[in-house]
Amino acid sequence: MKEARYFYVPNAAQATELPLEEARHAVSVLRLKAGDEIFLMDGEGSFYQANVTLAATKHCMYDIVKALPQQKTWKGHVHLAIAPTKMMDRMEWMIEKMTEVGFDEITFLDCRFSERKKLRIDRLEKIVIAAMKQSRKAWKPVVHPIMSFQDFVNQQREGGLYIAHCYTEIARKDFLSEIQQANDQQDITMLVGPEGDFSMDEVKQALEKGFSSVSLGQNRLRTETAGLVSIVMSQVVKRVL
Amino acid sequence: MKEARYFYVPNAAQATELPLEEARHAVSVLRLKAGDEIFLMDGEGSFYQANVTLAATKHCMYDIVKALPQQKTWKGHVHLAIAPTKMMDRMEWMIEKMTEVGFDEITFLDCRFSERKKLRIDRLEKIVIAAMKQSRKAWKPVVHPIMSFQDFVNQQREGGLYIAHCYTEIARKDFLSEIQQANDQQDITMLVGPEGDFSMDEVKQALEKGFSSVSLGQNRLRTETAGLVSIVMSQVVKRVL
């Protein structure tokens, strides 16, 4: 059985050809030809069955055969805001795994104790798109560039707001129990700090802005593990079977 | 505040010096000297507060000040048996993350469609020990060498036995719901297949041996992600707060 070929084509219903990188892959790597069947993902909830109509060096044109609207497999909107780790590969694997498991939005935070202040969003976008194709996600997660912790917590947000930190002197509720008790349609925004944690001031700022102080249990987790575990826990509560 | 220094010392209560690699790290990297405070982990449930009594090139001797027996943070025994991925780095990050999150035992399986038949257990052991120190786990997870799928399923086992696979023609229950319904003291053994999945024959063999056919939900997960997600789900059900 031949594995179906998926391509990410924003606005696939209106477009008539694959974006440049996808066209190169289709034509030069997969050697697709006119008449071959492909599947398009628009990243906004629909797949499309299509046929290649023209395959040239940098162009791959298609005709849509059938729209295949998808059902979202979890309830509510899940947003992780996290301070990037010093080692970029840790953020790269995290975002790949988060995409497979399922989430909606990620923002990178510039915090007091951040060890990394810059990151290549284009590289992360590519990893998200590859993982989205591999795991057949109908919605593309949104990847935001880095922003200051202050700006992030000052923005108005709906739903359950949580900040995970390690200060034992500030009471922390259990994140999983909190989201299990909330309405499962409710959005989740989770803040995860850098290797050196948020500063005490940052935690207090977040609490003033309506975030709840939480822990992820008794485990001492690295930043990227905490990010991924909070996404798996969100899925455990919000998934649709 | 100085971060406590942890060292893995099997049989720490009876031993009087750090193993060679740990001694090198203590003396050459951390520059510890006689009188410095260290913490030992025996990997069998106890930490020990100790003082360095002698620090030489390849030797670091200690006196134990106090035994600090730990409480296990989850119920039951969690065993993952998984076919290693072609790319070894995927198994390496998985085992690091599994150690942080918490599990008891891992076995690598040689399956019909395995793309890798050999792996360096010594390298994986080192990753487990580093992650165990970093995340302060009192019990060292056991890492078994590769064994054949047949031999594994033929062994007698206690507790809940599960095989995750992608054959839609074989009814699959939801893994998370199954372990939520079981007694939370019950042991878990979970089988995860290679990139090309278990063969249909392997799934049938496991079912005959008492394994339950399960899925991890609607997500299409890579092998290493399925392994880690099954461990996080086990922790969600079995953790002690």
How do the helices and strands follow one another from N- to C-terminus of chain A? EHEEEEHEHEHEEHEHEH
Gross morphology of chain A is: elongated
Which percent range fits the helix content of chain A? 25-40%
Named at the architecture level, the CATH assignment of the largest domain in chain A is 3-Layer(aba) Sandwich
Number of helices of chain A: 7
User: Strands across the major sheet of chain A, in which order?
Assistant: 7-6-5-10-8-11-9
Please state the average pLDDT score of chain A.
96
Task: Name the chain pair whose interface involves the most residues.
Answer: A-B, 28 and 28 residues
Number of strands of chain A: 11
Classify the beta-strand content of chain A into a percent band: 25-35%
Extract low-pLDDT stretches of chain A. none
The N- to C-terminal Cα distance of chain A equals 27 Å
- Structural class by secondary-structure content of chain A: alpha/beta
CATH topology of the largest domain in chain A, by name, is Alpha/beta knot
Regarding quaternary structure, what we see is homodimer
